[in-house]
C-alpha cells in the first residue's frame, strides 16, 4: 500500500485564477484606479522627470467608438505607459474635435425630419444644439476610452469648442492676418452642393462614379497654321456640366498633333465625311474608334507649340458664348486618354485656374453653392449641375458640335459625410498662402527635421507639401469658430489691427465665439477707431482642420503639465493629409517649426482575409464594446500590440480567438510564478553568485529581454516586443526553465539552495515581466501585481522598469547553454516519439542514452542532465557510433538518442524511477525525498 506524501510537496498556491473573467474583473480594477486617482498619482510621482508628451489627435465627438478608435487609443496608451515605466513623466491629455460639418449635419437632419428650415433658426440657438450634441458624445466616448484601460486626464481634457480653445484659434488666425499670409481670393475648391460648403482634402473620399463623357468640336476661328482653316479642335471631358464655364483649350507644346480628314463613318456616327479634326497623333486610332470614324486620312502633322495664338469659337458661339477661346500650352496635357486637347474651365479646376490666371483669363462665376447655374448663364440658368448632362448633349447636337458621347466609371471625389459627388467651384474664400513668409519652405525644412515612423510617412507628406496649393481656411457653415475678420467695404481688404484681434480673442475666451453673432459685434470689436458703417463682418467659419491644427497652441503651450513641441503625434496614415498636415502648416506659419519631434502612423482595419476595410455596409464590423463585454479589453490591447500596425491590420472573430490563446499563455506564465512564490520572503533570497548555472542563464536572458524592451519602446515597435515576450514566456520559461525546475520547487527542502535559487529567480522574473506586460495587458498586470503586493493603493502602473545589473550578462554562459538546449531538444523529441510508440508513459520512466559531439558533451559537464531533460536518468557519451535506429532531429544529426526504460521503482513523492526507491526509512521514496520528509517531520504515521 502506497503512502500519501501530498502534504510534503510544495504545490503552487495562488488567488490568481486560471480563468481570467476579464469582462467582470476589469470594471472592478478600473473603479479602483479611479478611487485611487491613478492619473493624478502618476503626475505627482513623476514631477521633475524628463517629459515624454504624446499629443492626442482629437477624435470627432459624434458617435460610439469603433474599432479604429480602439486601435488608435490603445496604441497611444501603450506608448505612454511604456515611456512612463522607462522613468519619464509621460502625461497624456485626451481631446476632441467638436466643430464642423458632421455635427451640424446631424442637427440639420432633425430639422429636416420636423419640416423646419434650418436657415430660419437663430444661429446662436442652432450652435447651442450643436454644442450640446458634441458634449453628449464627449462624455460617452470618455467613458468608453477609459473602459479600454486608457489612462489620461479625463477630468480636464481639451475640446476645440472650449472657450479658451476658440479664443486661441482666433489668435492663431490673427497671426496669419497680421503677417500677410491670410488673404481673400476666388479659386476653384472642392465644393459639396449638398452641404453647400467647401471641403478640405481630408474630408474627401473617392468612390466609383459613372460620368457622361463627350467629344466636342471647337471650330478654329484664327490660326497661324493654314492647314487649320476649316478645322475643329476636338476636346474630351468627363464633366459636361463645366462646358458653360469653358474659356480656353490646353495642348501639349511638345506633343505631336495631326489634322485628320474623315473619309467615311458608321451610320450612327456623328462624324461627317470630309470634315477636318485636330487631335493628338498618338490618339488618332482611339478617337476614330470612339467617334465611329471608319476611314480617315492624315491631312497635316505638326507640333503642339505651332498652335500658339490659335483662337477657336465656343461651340455655342452666337448663343451667349461670344468670346474667344484661345489655345494655350499646358504641362498637364497627356495622351493617356481623350484627344490630346483639354477644355479649360478656370472656375472648375485647379490646373484650369492657374493656366487661366497665367494668361489673363477672367474666371467666370457660373455655378452657385446649391449646384444651380446662376441666372446670367446662357441656356442653362437655374439648372442643376448633377442633372444637366442630357441638356448639354442636346445643345451640342443642336449646333453640330457633338462628335461622340459615352460613359465612364472612374474614381471620383465624394463628400465623406453626405457621400454625394463633389464639384470644383470657383468661390470667394479665405486662403493662407504657401509662399508668403516662405511657409512652404519652412514646412519642408520641418519635415526634414522630424522623425517619421515608418519612414514612408516622410516621402508621403513631403510630396504633398511640395505641390499643395494655398490653404483654404474658410467654410460656409454655422457651427465652428467664426472667421474673426472685418472687410473694408470700399477696398475689399481685411482689417489688420492687432488690437481688434485681441478684443475678439478676449471676448471668445470669456463668453465663447457665439458673441460674433450678436447684433453689436461690429461696434464692440471695431471699437472707436473705426466706423462700423465702413466694414462688413465676415460670416464664414474657420475650417475644422485649422481648429485641430491649432491644438498645439491651446493644449501643449497652454498647460504647464505638457510641453511644446510634443514628443510624438500618432494617428492613422490618412492624417498625413489631415492633422499632421494642418498642424505642420499652422505651426510653421506662426512659430517656424513643426509642433512635434516625431510622427507615428498606423494602418487601417481590414477583415480577416485582408480583402476589405471594415465597414457597416459590408457587415464585417465588430464594436469594441462587443469585445470588452465578451472577452475583456485586455484582449483588444493584446491584439493591438501583437499586430504589425505599421501596415493595415486584419481583424475578426478568429483573430480575436488566436489573441485569446496568446493571452492565456501569458496569464498562465504569471500564474505559475505567483503560485510558486507563495510564502517567499527576503530571508529565502539567494545571492546570484551562489546560484546554479541554469538560474544564471535565466538572468542573462533577462538582460537581453530588458534591452529589447527598452529599445522597442523607444522605437515604438511593440509588435517585436510582443513576439519576444511571448517567445520568452513560452519557450525559455514555460517549456524550458519552469519545466525543469518544477521538481526542485515542488520536492526540494525549503532551505535547499537549488529551490531557493529557483524561487529567487521566479521573484526576479515576475518583478520584471509584470512591468514589461503592464503597458500591454494593463488590467491583468495590475491584478497579478496585487497578488504579490496587496493593498488598496498598490498598482504596477506607478512602477518603473527595474535596472538589470550588468553583471548578469554572460555571453559565454549563453553560448554554452545554447549547446545544452540543443541536446535537450533532441532528447525531448526522442521521448515524444517513444511515448507515442507506447514504449514509455511519462518522461520520468525513461533513461535515454545520448550520443553527442565532444563540444556538446563538454558543455554538459557537471550538469544534472536527467533533471534538465526530466528523466530519471541519462547516459551521455561522445564515444562510439550511435545505432541506426537512434532518434535524430532533421538538420541536427550530430546528436542521437536511444530511449531505454529507467531501472528501479517509482518514488511515491517525486515520481522519479530510481534503483534506491524503497531502501530508505520512509516507505516508497528515493533518497532525496526521504531526506526532505525526514527534515519536515511530516511523514504519515
Automatic annotation (TrEMBL):
Pfam families: Anticodon_1 (PF08264), tRNA-synt_1 (PF00133), zf-FPG_IleRS (PF06827). Residues 904-932 form the Zinc finger FPG/IleRS-type domain. Residues 695-847 form the Methionyl/Valyl/Leucyl/Isoleucyl-tRNA synthetase anticodon-binding domain. A motif ('KMSKS' region) lies at residues 613-617. GO terms for molecular function: aminoacyl-tRNA deacylase activity; ATP binding; isoleucine-tRNA ligase activity; tRNA binding; zinc ion binding. It is an enzyme of class 6 (ligase). It catalyses: tRNA(Ile) + L-isoleucine + ATP = L-isoleucyl-tRNA(Ile) + AMP + diphosphate. One of its GO terms (cellular component) is cytosol. GO terms for biological process: isoleucyl-tRNA aminoacylation. It is found in: Cytoplasm. Residues 29-651 form the Aminoacyl-tRNA synthetase class Ia domain. InterPro entries: aa-tRNA-synth_I_CS (IPR001412), aa-tRNA-synth_Ia (IPR002300), Anticodon_Ile_BEm (IPR033708), Ile-tRNA-ligase (IPR002301), Ile-tRNA-ligase_type1 (IPR023585), Ile-tRNA_ligase (IPR050081), M/V/L/I-tRNA-synth_anticd-bd (IPR013155), Rossmann-like_a/b/a_fold (IPR014729). Catalyzes the attachment of isoleucine to tRNA(Ile). As IleRS can inadvertently accommodate and process structurally similar amino acids such as valine, to avoid such errors it has two additional distinct tRNA(Ile)-dependent editing activities. One activity is designated as 'pretransfer' editing and involves the hydrolysis of activated Val-AMP. The other activity is designated 'posttransfer' editing and involves deacylation of mischarged Val-tRNA(Ile). Monomer. Belongs to the class-I aminoacyl-tRNA synthetase family. IleS type 1 subfamily. This is Isoleucine--tRNA ligase. It comes from Roseospira marina.
Amino acid at each position: 500500500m502506497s503512502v500519501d506524501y501530498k502534504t510534503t510537496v510544495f504545490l503552487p498556491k495562488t488567488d490568481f485564477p486560471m480563468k481570467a473573467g476579464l469582462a467582470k474583473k476589469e470594471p472592478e480594477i478600473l473603479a479602483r484606479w479611479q478611487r485611487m486617482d491613478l492619473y493624478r498619482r502618476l503626475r505627482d510621482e513623476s514631477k521633475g522627470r524628463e517629459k515624454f508628451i504624446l499629443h492626442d489627435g482629437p477624435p470627432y465627438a459624434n458617435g460610439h467608438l469603433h474599432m479604429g478608435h480602439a486601435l488608435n487609443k490603445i496604441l497611444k496608451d501603450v506608448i505612454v505607459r511604456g515611456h512612463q515605466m522607462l522613468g519619464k513623466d509621460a502625461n497624456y491629455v485626451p481631446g476632441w474635435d467638436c466643430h464642423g460639418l458632421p455635427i451640424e449635419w446631424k442637427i440639420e437632419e432633425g430639422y429636416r425630419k420636423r419640416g423646419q428650415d434650418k436657415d430660419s433658426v437663430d444661429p446662436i440657438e442652432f450652435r447651442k444644439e450643436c454644442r450640446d450634441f458634441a458634449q453628449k458624445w464627449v462624455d460617452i466616448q470618455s467613458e468608453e476610452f477609459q473602459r479600454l484601460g486608457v489612462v489620461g486626464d479625463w477630468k480636464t481634457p481639451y475640446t476645440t469648442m472650449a472657450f479658451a480653445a476658440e479664443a486661441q484659434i482666433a489668435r492663431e488666425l490673427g497671426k496669419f492676418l497680421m503677417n500677410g499670409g491670410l488673404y481673400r481670393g476666388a479659386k476653384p475648391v472642392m465644393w459639396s452642393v449638398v452641404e453647400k460648403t467647401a471641403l478640405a482634402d481630408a474630408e474627401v473620399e473617392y468612390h466609383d462614379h459613372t460620368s457622361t463623357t463627350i467629344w466636342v468640336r471647337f471650330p478654329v476661328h484664327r490660326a497661324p497654321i493654314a492647314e487649320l482653316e476649316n478645322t475643329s479642335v476636338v476636346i474630351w471631358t468627363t464633366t459636361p456640366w463645366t462646358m458653360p464655364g469653358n474659356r480656353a483649350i490646353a495642348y501639349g507644346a511638345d506633343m505631336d498633333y495631326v489634322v485628320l480628314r474623315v473619309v467615311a463613318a458608321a451610320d450612327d456616327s456623328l462624324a461627317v465625311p470630309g470634315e477636318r479634326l485636330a487631335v493628338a497623333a498618338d490618339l488618332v486610332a482611339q478617337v476614330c474608334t470612339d467617334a465611329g470614324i471608319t476611314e480617315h486620312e492624315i491631312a497635316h502633322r505638326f507640333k503642339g507649340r505651332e498652335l500658339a495664338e490659335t483662337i477657336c469659337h465656343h461651340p455655342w458661339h452666337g448663343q451667349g458664348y461670344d468670346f474667344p477661346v484661345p489655345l494655350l500650352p499646358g504641362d498637364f496635357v497627356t495622351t493617356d486618354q481623350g484627344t490630346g486637347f483639354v477644355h479649360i474651365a478656370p472656375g472648375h479646376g485647379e490646373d484650369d485656374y492657374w493656366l487661366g490666371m497665367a494668361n489673363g483669363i477672367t474666371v467666370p462665376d457660373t455655378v452657385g453653392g446649391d449646384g444651380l447655374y446662376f441666372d446670367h448663364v446662357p441656356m442653362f440658368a437655374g439648372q442643376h449641375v448633377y442633372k444637366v448632362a442630357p441638356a448639354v448633349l442636346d445643345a451640342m447636337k443642336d449646333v453640330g458640335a457633338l462628335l461622340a458621347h459615352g460613359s465612364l466609371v472612374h474614381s471620383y471625389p465624394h463628400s465623406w459625410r453626405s457621400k454625394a459627388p463633389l464639384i470644383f467651384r470657383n468661390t470667394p474664400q479665405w486662403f493662407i498662402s504657401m509662399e508668403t513668409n516662405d511657409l512652404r519652405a519652412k514646412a519642408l525644412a520641418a519635415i526634414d527635421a522630424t522623425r517619421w515612423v515608418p519612414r514612408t510617412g516622410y516621402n508621403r507628406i513631403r510630396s504633398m507639401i511640395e505641390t499643395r496649393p494655398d490653404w483654404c481656411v474658410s467654410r460656409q457653415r454655422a457651427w465652428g469658430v467664426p472667421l474673426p475678420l472685418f472687410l473694408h467695404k470700399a477696398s475689399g481688404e481685411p482689417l489688420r489691427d492687432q488690437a481688434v484681434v485681441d478684443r475678439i480673442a478676449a471676448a471668445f475666451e470669456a463668453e465663447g465665439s457665439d458673441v460674433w453673432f450678436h447684433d453689436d459685434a461690429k461696434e464692440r470689436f471695431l471699437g472707436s477707431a473705426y466706423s462700423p458703417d465702413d466694414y462688413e463682418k465676415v460670416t464664414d467659419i474657420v475650417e475644422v482642420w485649422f481648429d485641430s491644427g491649432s491644438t498645439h497652441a491651446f493644449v501643449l503651450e497652454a498647460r504647464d503639465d505638457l510641453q511644446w513641441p510634443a514628443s510624438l503625434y500618432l494617428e492613422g496614415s490618412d492624417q498625413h493629409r489631415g492633422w499632421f498636415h494642418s498642424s505642420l502648416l499652422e505651426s510653421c506659419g506662426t512659430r517656424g517649426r513643426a509642433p512635434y519631434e516625431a510622427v507615428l502612423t498606423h494602418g487601417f482595419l481590414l477583415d480577416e482575409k485582408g480583402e476589405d476595410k471594415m465597414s457597416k455596409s459590408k457587415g464585417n464590423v465588430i464594436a469594441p464594446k462587443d469585445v470588452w463585454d465578451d472577452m475583456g479589453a485586455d484582449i483588444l490591447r493584446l491584439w493591438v500590440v501583437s499586430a504589425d500596425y505599421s501596415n493595415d491590420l486584419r481583424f475578426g472573430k478568429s483573430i480575436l480567438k488566436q489573441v485569446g490563446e496568446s493571452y492565456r499563455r501569458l496569464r498562465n506564465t504569471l500564474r505559475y510564478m505567483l503560485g510558486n512564490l507563495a510564502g517567499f520572503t527576503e530571508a529565502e533570497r539567494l545571492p546570484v553568485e551562489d546560484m546554479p548555472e541554469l538560474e544564471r542563464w535565466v538572468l542573462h536572458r533577462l538582460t537581453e529581454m530588458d534591452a529589447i524592451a527598452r529599445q522597442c519602446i523607444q522605437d515604438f515597435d511593440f509588435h517585436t516586443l510582443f513576439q519576444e515576450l511571448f517567445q520568452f514566456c513560452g519557450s525559455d520559461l514555460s517549456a524550458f526553465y519552469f519545466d525543469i525546475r518544477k521538481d526542485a520547487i515542488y520536492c526540494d527542502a525549503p532551505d535547499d539552495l537549488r529551490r531557493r535559487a529557483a524561487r529567487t529567480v521566479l521573484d526576479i522574473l515576475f518583478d520584471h515581466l509584470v512591468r514589461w506586460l503592464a503597458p500591454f495587458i494593463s488590467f491583468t498586470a495590475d491584478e497579478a501585481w496585487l497578488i504579490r503586493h496587496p493593498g488598496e493603493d498598490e498598482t504596477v502602473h506607478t512602477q518603473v522598469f527595474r535596472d538589470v545589473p550588468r553583471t548578469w550578462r554572460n555571453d559565454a554562459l549563453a553560448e554554452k547553454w545554447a549547446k545544452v538546449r540543443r541536446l535537450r531538444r533532441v532528447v525531448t523529441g526522442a521521448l515524444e516519439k517513444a511515448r507515442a510508440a507506447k514504449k514509455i508513459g511519462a518522461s520520468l520512466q525513461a533513461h535515454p542514452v545520448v550520443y553527442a559531439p565532444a563540444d556538446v558533451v563538454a558543455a554538459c559537464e557537471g550538469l544534472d542532465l536527467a533533471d534538465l531533460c526530466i528523466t530519471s536518468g541519462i547516459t551521455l557519451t561522445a564515444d562510439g557510433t550511435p545505432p541506426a535506429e537512434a532518434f535524430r532531429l532533421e538538420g541536427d544529426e550530430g546528436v542521437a538518442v536511444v530511449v531505454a526504460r529507467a531501472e528501479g521503482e517509482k518514488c511515491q513523492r517525486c515520481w522519479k524511477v530510481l534503483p534506491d526507491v524503497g531502501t530508505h526509512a520512509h516507505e516508497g521514496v528515493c533518497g532525496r525525498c526521504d531526506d526532505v520528509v525526514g527534515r519536515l517531520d511530516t511523514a504519515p504515521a
